[in-house]
Amino acid sequence: MDILKSKSEVKERLSKEKIGAIHLLRLQGYGSIKYRCACGQEHDLNGDDVKRLASAKSFKVLLKCQNEYYTMIRIEGFFRKKAISEYGFHESSRENKNKNIST
Ligand SMILES: [Zn+2]
């Protein structure tokens, strides 16, 4: 997983994503899926402590944990889903004016 350290890096990566509404992916139906977070811990993407912010093409989800870390994951697998962490960044590296993603 890439950890993005600057606002310009975060902005550039997010600008390449086709961001959509989170409900486009029916995540609840998948049950518990652990993902490796940019904060260094593992969380369940359907857990109460994780905010599911947006979907992206294709089959990607932007998540935010209670430690204020964002992680973009890609969901793979058919019967058994798994989450591949692509990149992440801390709240402080986020461009606040990015209106595509509401928290
Ligand atoms: Zn985390």
Structure description:
By secondary structure, this protein is mainly β. The chain has one domain (2-92). It has one helix at residues 7-15; strands spanning 2-4, 19-20, 34-36, 42-44, 50-56, 60-65, 69-76, 82-90. The strands form two sheets. The protein has a six-stranded mixed sheet, with helices on one face. Strands 3-4 form a two-stranded antiparallel ribbon. The mean pLDDT is 92. The site of zinc ion has 7 residues, from loops.
Helical percentage: under 10%
**Helical stretch count?**
1
- The largest beta-sheet arranges its strands as 1-8-7-6-5-2
Distance between the termini: 22 Å
Short structural description:
With 103 residues, the chain is mostly beta strands. Helix content is 9%, strand content 40%.
Q: What layout of secondary structure does this protein have?
A:
Elements: E1 2-4, H1 7-15, E2 19-20, E3 34-36, E4 42-44, E5 50-56, E6 60-65, E7 69-76, E8 82-90
Parallel strand pairs: 1-8
Antiparallel strand pairs: 2-5, 3-4, 5-6, 6-7, 7-8
What distinguishing features does this structure have?
about 100 residues, mainly beta, 6-stranded mixed beta sheet, two-stranded antiparallel sheet, 1 helix, 8 strands, about 40% strand, globular, binds zinc ion
